[in-house]
Design a protein that fits this description.
The chain is of the alpha/beta class. Helices cover 33% and strands 23% of the residues. GO terms for molecular function: 1-phosphofructokinase activity. InterPro entries: 1-PFruKinase (IPR022463), PfkB_dom (IPR011611), Ribokinase-like (IPR029056), Tagatose/fructose_Pkinase (IPR017583).
Length: 314
């Protein structure tokens, strides 16, 4: 069972339009609403693969009630923690060429008691979890050290932790030695304090995060592929993608694929790449099912193209 923790979940509304024109009245050609937040997306991808998952998350207002119902319809057990504020609603606008414009709300402010209640909800379920995935930004009211406390408590209970966050929250948590951290290229650059122009520079940055405490680093490099750097070495994975429809949740799908495949080694990296590639070819923040995956399109290797220039340098 994969337990996910999403301290700032959302309802994600996606509108597909022919073109975004500022100041105009636009008609959507398609729209959808999905349960959102990085940890929630991981749970959705795990559930889509037919594996058990439990989502721990604060829920408030009618938006929180709808989020819980949507999770239940997907076969995901929602371990909701009641909070006074309303769950946020995020808006994504997708254009046919793959351009995505996002409006993310800040979300409710959690009290000290509510923050502790989320940690307690994790504690009561930790023994049944093969992995705990802690994902996303922290809501107002939570200090950057909140993830570090969660990682420390989970490790004391014998659990393995995958952490997908950035900035001060990531830096503070590294001292507690999370088993896997999953930055994208921009977050990786931010963590080491310099831009990354090549795959080789990304490998060095991942090694620095390991030096700071991360036991393994799974780094998404966008269209360039993904890196896995752990105690056994560094590995690189790419996949053939026909057309990008939406990249919302693609990194979360990758993490789900990685953990569902065991959470270590080249085979898990290949699963991560396959899930991410499938996700970007789906609408909105839809998560891939096994039927969407194309393992034959994935290539993983220890022979990393260190000189390859990143298409979108961080």
């Amino acid at each position: 069972m994969i337990l996910t923790v999403t301290p700032n979940p959302s309802l994600d509304r996606t509108y597909e339009i022919p073109a975004l024109e500022r100041g105009a009245v636009l008609r959507a050609t398609a729209d959808r609403v999905d349960p959102g937040g990085k940890g929630v997306n991981v749970s959705r991808a795990v559930a889509a693969a037919g594996q058990r998952t439990v989502a721990v998350l604060p829920l408030g207002g009618p938006e929180g009630a709808l989020l819980a119902r949507l999770l239940e319809e997907l076969g995901i057990e929602a371990a909701g923690v009641p909070v006074a504020g309303s769950t946020r609603v995020n808006i994504s606008v997708a254009e046919p060429d793959g351009t995505l414009t996002k409006l993310n709300a800040s979300g409710p402010e959690l009290s000290d008691a509510e923050a502790e209640a989320v940690l307690e909800a994790v504690r009561t379920r930790v023994e049944s979890a093969d992995w705990i995935a802690c994902c996303g930004s922290l809501p107002r009211g939570l200090a950057p050290e909140w993830y570090a406390e969660l990682v420390a408590r989970a490790h004391r209970a014998g659990a393995r932790i995958a952490l997908d966050t950035s900035g001060p929250s990531l830096t503070a948590a590294l001292r507690e030695r999370p088993d896997v951290v999953k930055p994208n290229a921009e977050e990786l650059a931010q963590a080491v304090g310099r831009p990354l122009a090549t795959v080789g520079e990304a490998v060095k940055a991942a090694e620095e995060l390991r030096g700071l405490g991360a036991r393994a680093v799974l780094a998404s490099l966008g269209a360039d592929g993904q890196l896995l750097v752990d105690e056994t070495g560094a590995y690189f994975g790419t996949a053939r993608v026909t057309a990008v429809r939406s990249n919302v949740g693609a990194g979360d799908a990758s993490l789900a694929g990685f953990l569902a495949a065991g959470g270590s080694g080249p085979a898990a990296l290949a699963s991560a790449v396959a899930h991410g590639a499938a996700a970007v070819q789906l609408p909105g923040s839809a998560m891939p099912t096994p039927a969407d995956l194309d393992p034959s399109a994935v290539v993983t290797t220890a022979d990393i193209p260190l000189d390859r220039v990143l298409k979108e340098p961080a």
